[in-house]
Amino acid sequence: MPKLARPQNPMLPSACAKRRYIRSPTTQKEARIMLTVQRGPKIAEGKTKILYCEEGRPGRVDIEQKDDITAGDGKKHDILSGKGAAANQTAVNIFKLLQSNPMIPVAFRGQSSATSFAAPLCEMLPLEVVVRRRNFGSFGQRNPHVPEMTVFPRLVLEFFLKTKGKQWNGMGLPEDDPYIRFSSDGMMNLYHPKKPLGSDWATGELSVPEIITSKRLDEIRHVTPYLFLILEKAFFLADGLELIDFKLEFGIGPDKRLYLADVVTPDEVRLLKDGRHESKEFYRRNGQLDKVLEIYQRVARATERFPDAPPQTVILWRGSTKDDFTPFADALKSGAVPGLAMIPVTCSMHKEAERGCRLLAKAIQEHPDAVVIAYVGRSNGAGPTLAAHTHAPVITVPAGWERFPEDVWSSLRAPSDVPVMTCLTPANAVLAALNIFAMKNPFVYAAVRSKLEARLTNTIEIA
Q: pTM to 2 decimals?
């Protein structure tokens, strides 16, 4: 059995922590397909979960979610019957959503019981990786000049070193899980996680743990905001929930690849709905225990409604074979959105209007979630004509407009009830189509938004 990077002893709350119990109301559970897992010995136990090895299967584990809920580094502790099941279902549904994109490595094999899931055993990196859309929590303590709940157009990515007992390699710490700043020369500086940088305590440069290689750190920097964007859209589509921030952990699997590991539950995310906290934050703020349990169950139900990536199609329309689709196909490929289809149609709406309307009706019937891009030379009246005969969005690109700029007017001067969009370049037309798809597809949203965020700026100075 491979060893964990950071073997953990059972982490029990302090004797002075007040413990309260509340029972879950009986609910009808839908039948689920579960993996059969033969549990072996317990490997580690934390405040909210237990890790078991899988009998006879080295490199595999079963992760059990407990009914415990804690806050303030264990100073506040309660047991909510049913919380473990709700948290587990949330984690399972999130991992299934992310795992549907083969580009995302997730340490998840499948649900093994109402309160557990099976996963590959990972050697965990001693990092907590936080992404924030708004200023909340410890970020505001380190940046008191930033008003609470300030929106960050560009996601804020932060790293914290996972420690225990206020110690790191024999060095005393004022608080566990200090804030990290990595330097370009492969070193790191640690700061108090809840005070402005440099105002109270900081270390000099320290060596980065060997397991946190520069390659792995770059991969985490790349993938973590992308994961946030997927969940940001998925939570909103599922139940109008706003993702404020989340905390993730990563590990190295038996195949030596980097994986999103551990769990993602209302303990690790902050969610808002209509100004109300729909996560563990409600418990931190001394919310009623029965309401806390209801929040975990509501979030679990919301993740049940995570949308599958819908079959979406770009219908590329041209008047003749002389109109070259290559720039559009190249732009779609550069978007790297899995599952997005492209259907070419060649028909002159001037010369074959009746046939064109039949082809349009057939294409939309077979691909109802579609955007039409019309790329026609000379007078591009095809775009407005198509827009007048379909509910699907139509984007027109006047081919050769550089030589004949007056042709653009054929696309712009459309009559009433003809909502056609005009773009002058194939790349912008494809981007406009992707933005439309992104309204209900978390993966398209993440693809286009991540490119946008690369050039956005947070106008407030951040330490």
A: 0.89
